[in-house]
Each structure stands twice: as structure tokens, then as C-alpha cells.
Amino acid sequence: MELSNDSVLALVIAGFILAFLVAAGIGANDAVNSFGSLFGAKTLKTRNILILSIIFESLGAILIGMGATETIRNGIIDIKDVERAYNLSSTCLTPFINEQQIIAAASNVTVAALNCAKAVHLLGNISVLVSCAISLLVANFLKLPTSATHVVVGSIFGYGLIALRGQHIHWMVLVKIVSSWILSPIASGVFAAVVCYTLDVLIGKTRNIKTSAWVITILYF
């Protein structure tokens, strides 16, 4: 399977559109996590909340989002693993089954084989975007809070099962990601309980206005 230039261009355009659909799904679902409490408490006007969320979510993605982005990009499935997993067949349908075959063919990799792997990787990532867009759309329609990270990781895992027959998936990275899904709600729940109790003691039950004012000032700034 060798993609023509027109096919590649069409897939890139489709990926661009799908990326916007996924971003819209994230905005309708995930983004509420960052400012939902402000909206519910009516602390700020909706317009100001949206402006602040745009500014700080963009800054977070640009300044400190590289680590998570790199994990999604190459942490679970690496393009180099896809290149090594496929033989020189023009059909691009027969992945290597064992390490011996990969090592034996490593010195005989051609441009055609690399193009084959890139085509598989491109189609795989398009399938990931389609899966994410549909999953987030359905979740939003059903009014279900769904993490885009969960959807993306699950989609990449599904792509790896088909394209690599489950081989060369970075399982330890996948285990760490899934473990964080289990541990982070527990840790955040405990932390929220401690903070809530502390605020209740310092503000809710205190008669000292100065103490309450200092605590509120620190929380705001």
C-alpha cells in the first residue's frame, strides 16, 4: 500500500478537520474542569471566565504541555517501531512476528518500506482522531464528563493492536498512564477533603474577620 501525493494531502486535510472537531469536543467537555467551579459559584461573569480559561489553558499547553504531548506522540507507539515491524511488502499488510525477523531485515530497509510504515502510521493516527471525535461527540450528547486523555490513549492502544498485532506497544508507559487514572482521583479527593476541612476551620468556624480576610486573600492570589 503506497499512498499517492493526492491521498496524503487528502488525509492531512482530513486530519486537520478532525483535530478541530476533537478540540471542540475537548472544549465542550474537558475544559469545564478548569472553570466549572467558578461558573457554578458565580464568582466571575461568563465572559471573564472564558477569557481567563483561553489565556491560561493556552499558556499551560505551550509552556508545560510538552511532556504529556511527547508521551502521546511517541510514548505508547513510536514510528520507529512501526518501521521495524513491517516488512518490505508493497501491500503493507504483513507485520513481522518476532524479533529475529526484524533484526534480519534491519539492514535491508528501503525507502519503500519506510513509506509503507509512514502510511500505516498516518492512517492509524487518522483512525485515532476519528475515534476521539466520535467518542467525545457521543459523550457530550449524553452529558457525560469524559477525559479526552482517556479517549486518545485508548484509541492509540486500539491502533497498536491492529497495526502492530499488539507487539512493540510500550506497555510500561501504558500501565503508568492507566495507574495515574486510578491514583489521581483518589489523591485529589483526599487533598480536596483536607483543604475543605482547613477552610471550614479557618473561615467557617472562626470569629476572626482578619484571619478570614487573610485566608481568602492568599487563596485568590
What attributes does this structure have?
221 residues, membrane, mainly alpha
Tell me what the structure shows.
- This protein has two domains: 5-169, no CATH class; 174-220, no CATH class.
- The model is unreliable at 94-114 (pLDDT under 50).
- With 221 residues, the chain is mainly alpha-helical.
- Helix content is 77%, strand content 0%.
- Helix 1 runs parallel beside helix 7, helix 5 crosses helix 7 and helix 7 (111-141) runs antiparallel to helix 8.
- The chain has helices at residues 5-28, 32-41, 46-64, 66-75, 79-85, 99-105, 111-141, 148-163, 171-204, 209-220.
- The longest helix has 34 residues, at 171-204.
- The protein has ten helices and no strands.
Quick description:
The protein is mostly helical and 221 residues long. Helices cover 77% and strands 0% of the residues. The protein folds into 2 domains: 5-169, no CATH class; 174-220, no CATH class.
